[in-house]
Amino acid sequence: MPPSIGYASEFPTPELLGWPGDGPTLRLDYRRFSYAGKFVMSNTGKAVVREGESTDGEFDDSVVAAVAFNADRTDPETLWLRYVTVRDDRRGEGLGPRLCRFVVERAAARGYERVRIAVNNPFAYEALYRAGFAFTGEETGIAELVLERPAHAPAERSTARYRAGLDQYRKRDLSEDERAFLERKRGEEPPALSD
Fold this sequence. Notes:
single chain; alpha+beta
């Protein structure tokens, strides 16, 4: 069972590798990370959580979580988190929400007013709620739910809107783990913000 969400002082500190214009890239092990191939592209900014030192191997093996992001092409006040991934053996520890909050803080410092993300599963939905995001009521053309938060403070999070997002996932063809997760969340309030 994964540890409860919370951040002890020994939690690794997130690191900003660069903004989109800096062209940062990562070599993540595709067997251990979702979206690993998206991190070799240099057109998005990147931030990571590392543990230990990376070896000179094929992959950046010190990385345990990563996020890629870029500015909205039509709204210069909005930053999009594009891909968030946590190494398979570290999921459920709160690394994703912590890393997303880290990027939101950097976005606020750079003058962004809001941060958005589109998520395709209920686990990511829940993690982003812990990072201060809330469901906008919108979906992308590929059935991802859009969540948003102001860059300077967590979003206002209504119980009705939170549950409406979970209900969108209930209409889909889901894995057994996703169905069980959604059943546990039935009638729940939005999760507490992570520290």
